[in-house]
């Protein structure tokens, strides 16, 4: 009996914890999940929070070696978030066009304090970025929860139509990147099923109406950019490349370093 009891203790000691999670294992958040990579030797790191595209996953995010290497290089955490279904459940999405998006807002409302409590992440130093449908989630959260992240960097994605007339959040740091020959999410959007993608220029114009001023044009790392600034210190940058529906981690790195320059991170 004593030998059996000792063996049971040994097995329990070396068995993986049900709460353990990270790069290869989902972190549970109610009935939702996410994954996380933490930098070694960094106390209270900032974080890049990445939203996957259509039919993507947090596991897919963590399989992106370039993303993971970028986070390590910057000394920050990488958080891969997971949509409610195959796509982010936001207003206008073809799979649920009548949704109000609250299910995703609730997810992020729960996620942010969990990142601080469970992983020691400094939630005042987080960039929210995503590609394609993930970029649409970035725009939606910038509109509804603008104070949740230090900045927002959508890539090749915007609202589903119609673009909101205004956003409750007000001005934010918005750093949008898009390909001028993108045919999957064209700058002017396209019809899908009974819905339509929103227009990127319309989304930017809606943001500009918050009081961003100026139209400074510049080039940055192969991107043609235009910058406008708000008197509260927020910056909106729209950068394009000549390619199609694609993402480079350099776009995210540029956004992170830009926010550092601005004192937001």
What oligomeric state do these chains adopt? Answer: single chain
Order of secondary-structure elements:
HEEEHHEHEHEEEEHEEEH
Helix content: 25-40%
What number is the mean pLDDT? 92
In DSSP terms (H or I, runs of 4 or more residues), the helix count works out at 7
Q: Tell me, briefly, the overall form.
A: globular
How many strand segments?
Answer: 12
Which structural class should the secondary elements be placed in?
alpha/beta
Strand order of the largest sheet: 1-2-4-3-5-6-7-12-11-10
- Which residues sit in consecutive blocks of at least 5 with pLDDT less than 50? 1-18
Radius of gyration: 20 Å
How much of the polypeptide forms β-strand, as a percent range?
Answer: 15-25%
Our measurement of the CA-to-CA distance between the termini, rounded to an integer number of angstroms, reads: 57 Å
Q: Major sheet: size, sense and barrel closure?
A: 10 strands, mixed
